[in-house]
Design a protein that fits this description.
8% strand
Length: 173
């Protein structure tokens, strides 16, 4: 943006005002023209910077910057990123809910165990249980039952019970 027309307009206005004051005023105006030109350019640049700051606030996340090239400012516009087109996402396929254990397998006896989960898994288990409308305990019973009755073995292939009849229990990170 060329500020020269604006500075020239200021110079003409100063000359018109000085003509009304006589020869001394005209001479003073000529001496003041050069320093006032720099002050006028700086004032205009400050006003433009403030205006572009307001435009940037309204344009966020885009922006408009004022940069000085020589004596003239230039505007650099950074457009906001284009919104991503809406994509239809396929509905997630919910895993089938395993049937409850057969009635003959439920002898009514309960066993208590301590089960320690890392905090991030505990939160996920709680969320999953809530989504299915179950307590965390009921959800864990269902998950263990599905894992055991679904054909999965407790020990991975090739790893039987420890030899010598000894077993180890506990947890590890």
């Amino acid at each position: 943006m060329d500020l020269t027309p604006y500075v020239d307009n200021l110079r003409q206005e100063l000359a018109v005002a000085a003509d009304a004051g006589g020869d001394d005023a005209r001479a003073l105006a000529e001496r003041l023209t050069a320093p006032l030109e720099s002050a006028a350019r700086l004032t205009l640049l400050n006003a433009l910077s403030a205006a572009m700051g307001e435009v940037t606030r309204e344009l966020a996340p885009g922006s408009v910057d004022v940069r000085l090239r020589g004596l003239d400012p230039e505007f650099v516009v950074t457009a906001p990123p284009a919104p991503e087109p809406l994509r239809e996402q396929p509905e997630p396929v919910a895993a089938p809910v395993p049937p409850p254990p057969p009635a003959d397998a439920d002898d009514g006896a309960m066993a208590r165990i301590n089960f320690r989960l890392p905090a991030h898994l505990k939160a996920r288990a709680e969320d999953a249980a809530t989504a299915e409308g179950l307590s965390v305990n009921a959800w864990l019973v269902r998950a263990v039952s599905a894992a055991l009755d679904g054909g999965q073995r407790a020990n991975p292939p090739g790893r039987g019970a420890p030899s010598g009849g000894r077993s180890f229990t506990g947890w590890v990170r």
